Amino acid sequence: MSKQQHIDNQTIIDLQQGDTMALAKLYAVYATDVYQIAFTLLKDTGWSEDLVQEVFIKLWNNKSQLLADSPVWPFLYTLVKREALNKLRSIKRSQEAFERLLHYVQGFSPAADEQLLNQELANKLQTCFDGLPLQQERAIMMSKVDGMSYKEIAEELKISPNTVKNHIVQALKSLRNSEISKDMLQLLFLMYLLEK
Questions:
Q1: pTM to 2 decimals?
Q2: CATH architecture, domain 3-86
Q3: Coiled coil where (predicted)?
Q4: Domain range 107-195, CATH architecture
Q5: Are 8 and 1 in contact (CB under 8 A)?
Q6: Pair 149, 196: CB distance under 8 Å
């Protein structure tokens, strides 16, 4: 019996009507397959697990697009591939932003010992950013490193400017609680002032 046979038309209809049990049933049937595709593309367990959650949230948010008499797997497959590619693009942008930040930090220290200190600070900074949820990391990097406005960030991330502000506030709050919060926040503030 195929997975589609486990998911009858009524399950899709129930999902469209907001039944969370229908979503749970779909999750039970398809989460492993979604994870496998995500892992194949991302090559990272944590990111793949996060992506599974994001895909099923998007499935829930887009449940009205499903057709009760059509298989749900093609819809999920398309979602997981699109989200994985978005994640890969985001990772690339974050790495590029970090490299710009590292170059920027290293540009201020002519002495070798200062360069080593800046490299250590940059590594700690990257560790702190890696601990943030993806949307918070993207929002704060776009704001503080790329110099984008809340409106520009909102357009890029397809969220409201108020949500961007909330992500940045939460990210700064998390960063304040990190092991190098004072140094890092001073560095970010210095970068912000120097770019103005």
A1: 0.50
A2: Orthogonal Bundle (1.10)
A3: none
A4: Orthogonal Bundle (1.10)
A5: no
A6: no
